Amino acid sequence: MPVDRLLPTPESEELLALVTEIARDELKPRASADEEAENFPRDLFTLIGKSGLLGLPYSERWGGAEQPYEVYLQALEEIASAWMSVGVGLSVHTMSCYALAHYGAEEQQDRWLPDMLGGSLLGAYALSETHAGSDAAALSTRARLAEDEYVVNGTKAWITHAGVADFYTTMVRTSDDGGHGISCLLVDSSTPGLSAAPRERKMGLTGSPTAQMLFEDARVPADRLIGGEGSGLKIALSSLSSGRLGIAACAVGLAQAALDEAVEYAKGRTQFGRPIADFQGLEFLLADMAATVESARATYLDAARRRDRGLDFQRQSSIAKLVATDGAMKVTTDAVQVLGGAGYTRDFPVERYMREAKVPQIFEGTNQIQRMVIARSLKNA
Fold it and tell me: Which of 23, 86, 261, 319 has CA atoms 20 to 30 A from the CA of 73?
């Protein structure tokens, strides 16, 4: 069922109509088969890039659409409702552009952002390491300045788009000064010494490649340093605050898709002479699912509107990520229950939705970390 949205302008309504059409006609028909085959749909990222959707929240000066986050996130939700791997990929790409767009020098922005936002390049965000996930300040991938190049050694873990991205926004250690010793490099995929390990074998989002990225004396030109040495952790944490809203929107899209599937099935499945949707046990379950989806949507939109107005939104971002991803896990699980035995088969997409709902509770900061951020904000208020 189409979502009843309150959009701020006629232009944004036209944009969402375009996104809905692309999601319905190009993404959804391919999602199940490509996920089953673990195919990465690079052609679809090219398509949405040419449609102007890879740079929605960024300046028109560099080829972006200059849309408020309130609009960008609802577009992202529509894409994720059709195909979660593509939604997450768009969110990751948007976050990968954040460092350059917000902290880069003007010359760097003019040089690289047009291609990054225009659809010809796809990004990845390389922060996590095997022993530095939630504790980002503990990362150990090291970059040593040698004349006009940084020589980078180390391993990044759990990188979305590993091996298929064109650039990697990478956090590296340039000194031993703890969190103050981390810097940000914009690494081209053709960099000598950079390679991807074999893909992780995941329970969900199998159409989206995730792997380690290996830096072995990788030589990165010094002019690809973003924001100055020592600025990397600040850039990373700022990026994540916005990136969490992207994941929240994706989770709501996934939950909406599960709700739609459950409602449709319940209206068509007959037991004891009437549709199962007429039984109170199912009515209450569907009602709770709808309440969860709409509450999560309202939560991420509130955070987005605060961001658009230049207000602090870190706590609201963490709340949105927590509420939306926990909600998606519950709604997708309940959707399997509504379909009964059919929901446990691959003849229907709800089992895939349930598998895909797990990882949003983990990436962009686990939901346990979100609770820490929220609690710390309350104590420091």
Answer: 261
